[in-house]
């Protein structure tokens, strides 16, 4: 490379920015003494130039190189004190990633050189390692952000109409027979017609992608022949991970990701990203020096007071990002705005979000993180989902996030599972969960859709395994089955695992229908785990984070039972879309609305009488009848016209024996029709019509839904 011209450049924007004539490089480091920009050849193998950043403005080191073009591969070396006990871990022998890199290339070839200390030294991280890490290190690449978005528009699905599908970019398409082989497991594969057709026919309105921010495979996993499949090990908050790029015709990961978003938007499907801002892949004090640690450890991480060699760990991953530092907070906000404005995503699910809200030690609902997001004109307008817990003291914050946020409702998951397992005394809590969890969200102007309802997620059993295994089977993870949550589920569905017994399989299938029907008939926003609709099994592994193989990938070869269940899920989602009574924007009030003689909701026992206080608290109660009035939604459409729907009766029986339900008396002359009965393979009942006062026999461990069309004459 000929001699480079180096101009001072500007401190903003941070990162490497191509302006059509050259590239501005800017890197924040509060405590650095020198910052060097390292340029590499086109394959990233050889360092061809090392330039000292000539300027520092407000703790940002910057330079402008007019000869540099998109495609240039680069990294940084940062000099400063190496004093772990004071929180400083500078080591210029280590090549570092740019925290603002828009593209990260190459593969990580783990070795001891990636650690700032001598791994085998008796002083551990207090020692200093002089080996150069560049050879086996990931590297950054300058991008040209230009992309033809055309008329791309956000679907902007209202929260109450949203149905989320949580999926893994690779796992969802890796085994899909109708996706071209060279596109399977990639962003491009997710945008193919067969995949989008499945999503559309299923009826979901949003895909929630498990982490796609650039991440690394942990060294200890690689040495065991495993991978960090889930990706909750982020290292680059601006770069889409290149492992999911098909690279067709030289397409970059950025452009391939944008094309995927554009295709999903054209189909009316939103894209939500699962983002991991609470920690990084650098781990604890014994972790590698890859990026933040070597740039400015004391600024980027939460360190222990008076023991700054060690890290506060609210995440269980060794470190916690320092949201108290304005530049770290800026990094997160800049990243969020980038994915919204440049990549056109529609929202975010924040992993271990409580860790982001910690001011000193306690979780603070008025923290700077919340304040900045709430007032930001860009970030505040997209979908914001919190995983409302972390692993620190007081970290479980379900129901406590501010207005404007929705939450993964862990209490919903636990209550619905416990009820359908047959645990008595759960109907009181189940009633709250069915109706949007007003005990958690019915204050401060929050709505039912603040509750993201789910029964299964990536972390835990798949739906099929949930009703098929009493205990975890995680030996393939190489930790002697010690990892993952311990379970003693006792679903009473027969022997564990796969079964050839048709009675056992039918009972398990019925429980799957019960759980999905409950999810899709509950107020709030339902989230389905991808593959559950297809009967996916992980053979009892409830922590498949490191299983990048068919154990985790979605199997698209369906047997008869799987096809029936897929059709059942489609029908349930359509039923939800067709009837606004199951996706209300306001909480039920349990009283007549607008002078109507009928309550908006009422709860009955199997005898047809309204539930008494004593019955709500009976420890053996496992059955319930819910009346939903379509005449009392107390909501209007966008034209100001009152929204009306049919009336419904929801009958629920978690007992193993059949129960006769006497249908309660409500005004109207038309009969009740059974539109759903989970006792049957596709939820389709052979029963006919029923009148108030007649008996409907509900099979053991099943759910039924009866409807009566509302007509103007049916008001007396």
What's the quick description here?
With 716 residues, the chain is α/β, with parallel strands linked by helices. Among the domains are: 15-141, Immunoglobulins (Immunoglobulin-like, Sandwich), CATH 2.60.40; 589-708, Golgi alpha-mannosidase II (Immunoglobulin-like, Sandwich), CATH 2.60.40.
Describe the protein.
This protein is an alpha/beta fold and 716 residues long. Among the domains are: 15-141, Immunoglobulins (Immunoglobulin-like), CATH 2.60.40; 589-708, Golgi alpha-mannosidase II (Immunoglobulin-like, Sandwich). The strands form 8 sheets. It has an 8-stranded parallel beta barrel with strand order 12-13-16-19-20-21-22-23. A 6-stranded antiparallel β-sheet has the order 24-25-26-31-28-29, covered by helices on one side. A hairpin with a 2-residue loop joins β17 and β18. α9 packs across α10 and α13 (502-521) runs parallel beside α14 (560-578). The termini are far apart. The model is unreliable at 711-716 (pLDDT under 50).
Keywords:
alpha/beta; 716 residues; eight-stranded parallel barrel; Immunoglobulin-like; 15 helices
CATH architectural group of the domain at 15-141: Sandwich
Shape: elongated
What's the alpha carbon Rg, rounded to whole Å?
A: 28 Å
Classified in CATH, the superfamily of the domain at 15-141 is: Immunoglobulins
CATH topology descriptor of the domain at 15-141? Immunoglobulin-like
Task: Please report the distance between the alpha carbons of the first and last residues.
Answer: 88 Å
Helix content: 10-25%
The biggest beta sheet, please?
A: 8 strands, parallel, barrel
CATH level 1 class label of the domain at 15-141:
Mainly Beta
Number of helices: 15
């Amino acid at each position: 490379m000929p001699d480079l011209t180096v101009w001072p450049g500007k401190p903003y924007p941070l990162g490497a920015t191509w302006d059509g004539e050259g590239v501005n490089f800017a890197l924040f480091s509060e405590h650095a003494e020198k910052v060097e920009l390292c340029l590499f050849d086109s394959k990233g193998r050889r360092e061809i130039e090392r330039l000292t950043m000539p300027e520092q403005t407000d703790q940002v080191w910057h330079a402008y190189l007019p000869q540099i073009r998109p495609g240039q591969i680069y990294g940084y070396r940062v000099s400063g004190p190496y004093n772990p006990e004071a929180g400083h871990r500078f080591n210029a022998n280590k090549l570092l990633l740019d925290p603002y890199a828009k593209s990260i290339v190459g593969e990580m070839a783990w070795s001891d050189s990636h650690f700032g200390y001598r791994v085998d030294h008796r002083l551990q991280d207090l020692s200093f390692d002089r080996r150069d890490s560049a050879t086996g290190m990931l590297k950054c690449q300058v991008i040209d952000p230009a992309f033809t978005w055309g008329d791309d528009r956000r679907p902007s699905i209202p929260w109450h109409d949203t149905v989320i599908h949580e999926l893994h970019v690779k796992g969802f398409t890796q085994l899909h027979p109708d996706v071209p082989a060279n596109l399977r497991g990639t962003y491009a594969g997710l945008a193919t017609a067969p995949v989008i057709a499945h999503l559309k026919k299923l009826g979901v309105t949003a895909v929630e992608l498990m982490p796609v921010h650039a991440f690394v495979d942990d060294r200890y996993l690689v040495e065991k022949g495993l991978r960090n499949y889930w990706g909750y090990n982020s290292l680059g908050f601006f770069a889409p991970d290149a492992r999911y790029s098909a690279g067709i015709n030289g397409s970059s990961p950025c452009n391939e990701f944008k094309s995927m978003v554009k295709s999903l938007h054209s189909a009316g499907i939103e894209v939500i990203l699962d983002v991991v801002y609470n920690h990084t892949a650098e781990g604890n004090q014994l972790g590698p020096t890859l990026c933040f640690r070597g740039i400015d450890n004391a600024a980027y991480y939460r360190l222990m007071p008076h023991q700054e060699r060690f890290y506060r760990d609210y995440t269980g991953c060794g470190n916690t990002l320092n949201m108290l530092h304005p530049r770290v907070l800026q990094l997160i906000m800049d990243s969020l705005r980038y994915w919204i404005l440049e990549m056109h995503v529609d929202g975010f699910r924040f992993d271990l979000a409580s860790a982001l809200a910690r001011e000193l030690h306690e979780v603070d609902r008025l923290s700077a993180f919340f304040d900045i997001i709430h007032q930001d004109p860009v970030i505040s307008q997209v979908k914001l989902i919190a995983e409302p817990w972390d692993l620190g003291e007081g970290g479980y914050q379900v129901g406590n996030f501010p207005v404007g946020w929705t939450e993964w409702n862990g209490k919903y998951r636990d209550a619905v599972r416990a009820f359908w397992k047959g645990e008595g005394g759960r109907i009181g809590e189940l009633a709250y969960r069915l109706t949007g969890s007003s005990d958690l969200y019915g204050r401060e102007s929050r709505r039912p859709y603040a509750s993201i309802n789910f029964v299964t997620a990536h972390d835990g059993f798949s739906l099929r395994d949930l009703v098929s295994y009493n205990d975890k089977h995680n030996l393939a993870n190489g930790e002697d089955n010690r990892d993952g949550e311990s379970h003693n589920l006792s679903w009473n569905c027969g022997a564990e695992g796969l079964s050839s017994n048709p009675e056992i399989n039918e009972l398990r299938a019925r429980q799957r229908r019960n759980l999905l029907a409950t999810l899709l008939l509950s107020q709030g926003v339902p989230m389905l785990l991808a593959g559950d609709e297809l009967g996916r099994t992980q053979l009892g592994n409830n922590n498949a984070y490191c299983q990048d193989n068919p154990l985790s990938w979605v199997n698209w070869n369906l047997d008869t039972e799987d096809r029936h269940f897929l059709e059942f899920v489609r029908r349930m989602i359509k039923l939800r879309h067709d009837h606004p009574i199951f996706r209300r924007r306001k909480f039920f009030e349990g009283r007549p609305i607008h002078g109507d003689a009928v309550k908006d909701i009422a709860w009955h026992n199997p005898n047809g009488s309204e539930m008494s206080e004593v019955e709500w608290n009976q420890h053996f109660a496992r059955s319930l009848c819910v009346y939903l009035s379509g005449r009392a939604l107390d909501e209007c459409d966008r034209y100001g016209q009152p929204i009306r729907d049919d009336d419904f009766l929801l009958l629920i029986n978690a007992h193993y024996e059949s129960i006769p339900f006497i249908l309660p008396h409500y005004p109207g002359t038309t009969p009740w029709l059974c539109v759903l009965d989970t006792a049957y393979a596709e939820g389709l009942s052979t029963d006919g019509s029923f009148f108030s006062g007649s008996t409907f026999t509900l099979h053991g461990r099943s759910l039924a839904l009866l409807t009566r069309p509302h007509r103007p004459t049916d008001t007396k």
